[in-house]
Amino acid sequence: MTDREHTSSPLRRAAWIAGAVVVASVLFAPLSFGGFCADAPTADASYCVTTLRSLVGLDTSLWLWLGAVVVLAGFAWWFSARRGRRR
Questions:
Q1: Do 59 and 52 form a contact (C-beta atoms < 8 A)?
Q2: Which domain holds residue 77?
Q3: 15-66 confidence digits (pLDDT tens)
Q4: 45 DSSP 8-state letter
Q5: How many other β-carbons are positioned within 10 Å of the β-carbon of residue 16?
């Protein structure tokens, strides 16, 4: 392995992990609120629901986002290490 290939491997791995974090953030980072209220004739039957939404409109939470970041970054690390061994 040449010096250039050896030094570019950590950069390539970092790029894969950064890409995975960006994908997880676009899909699952809680950025806005959504919800609705259902009014009923009696006050006890009325209710409201508020949810967090991601950039693409998926219902999400802070824990879902953090979990997705960890899982996708781990997968990217594993995939980049696997690709590096084949060369």
A1: yes
A2: 11-86
A3: 999 999 999 999 999 999 988 899 999 888 899 999 999 999 899 999 999 9
A4: G
A5: 20
